[in-house]
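Notebook entry, cofactor series.
This is the third protein in the set we're modelling with a bound small molecule. For this one the ligand is flavin mononucleotide. I'm keeping the input format identical across the series so the outputs can be compared line by line later. Sequence and SMILES below, as received.
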Amino acid sequence: MDDSRQVIAPAPALAPGEAEERLALMRQFPTALDLRARARKRMPNFAFEYMDGGAGADGGIKRNWDALDAVELVPRYGKVVAPPPADTMLFGRPYSAPIGIAPIGGPGTAFPGAETYFASAAQAARVPYTLGVLSGITVERAAEIAPDVLWFQLYRFSRNDHKIGLDLTRRAQAVGVHALVLTIDTPARTIRPREVKSGIVNPFKLTMRLRWDAIRSPGWLSSLARNGIPRFVSLNPYMPPNQSLEESAAFIRREQGGAFTWDEVAKYRDVWKGPLILKGVLHPADAERAVAMGVDGLFVTNHGGRQIDALPSSIDALPAIRATVGRKATLILDSGVRSGVDVARAIACGADAAFAGKSFLWSLGALGPKGPAHLINVYTEDLKASLGQLGCATVDELRSVVTRHRNAWTRADFGA
Ligand SMILES: Cc1cc2nc3c(=O)[nH]c(=O)nc-3n(C[C@H](O)[C@H](O)[C@H](O)COP(=O)(O)O)c2cc1C
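Returned structure with ligand:
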């Protein structure tokens, strides 16, 4: 892939009838929360609980939503603003909107085949898609489906001096992945009570209880029939052949775990030649250290409230991180994003783009394979409307919108 390209490859023309279908979906499901409500009815309970549940009593999820809702933006009037475009540059690459799909491990449990549907929708819309390493398609296959928009996320596979992690990094480089994301915010395993109570087992198996649960979800079952039980196939070359699901799960438990140390991040910085992103940064001192060692971008995130429900919301941590790194790093916000207005809030508070995780899974649960394209459309149209409402002619102009963000952490709050 040519890294110097500065124009967005044009999105394919709409097929006959597609414009009408888009409009009909917009009327029925104009927001991400409409998709959530429908997903809850249509999905097997275990699949909904796996994707939707947070740590503890979902306190982190609620904090993320409340914190975004609390950010106020002040419009300026007095000039005519043509319908603004939403396109943006991230790491020197053009995208049609500052909106992306965050990495999701085991998304096939929520909706079998999710990775393929995400990759196709992101490629068609020209927005970033971050393939998680724990996915049902390989990084090579994802690069075939989404050559213009693919990012790749790694957890820490540290045995044998990071043999697996570094090999995956080289494979990602070879197929032209645009950005490598190292997730640092999962130092320990966590318990998500809703997931535990739903009856899901690891490795994923359709036990009698889950079968009974799934029987009322024909869309989910037919996607399972098409795509099979999810396996983390990028890891196949490192396992002995013909592993059972149990054996592969045991292999991953053995090989993967903990958070990358700074020395390990430096190792990946040496091997990976493209944009390197750390995912999970909430403290300005960590942001500063990452940038000083050559990291290009940070996901300011609390993992969507899934790891521990005592963390600050990412929107509240964001301004202090931007103040610390200045323009030396690209900042991606995720956790709690449910609308284009939230994307506008994130950018006005210091982000370059906002990504979402759960809502993309809701979209699949609600509408099946058509869901992700519809949700990208919802977010993009809402962002464009927000730009217009606020008097911004471009996404960049959002940076100068006056905000009131009462709960933002200051650098002094962090002791910085
Ligand atoms: C079901 C599920 C699985 C996830 N798996 C991963 C993962 O494998 N790696 C990772 O870095 N983040 C993972 N995340 C976190 C997301 O990348 C993202 O930070 C989070 O979902 C953003 O919050 P939101 O869900 O409120 O949009 C996962 C999130 C969900 C919902």
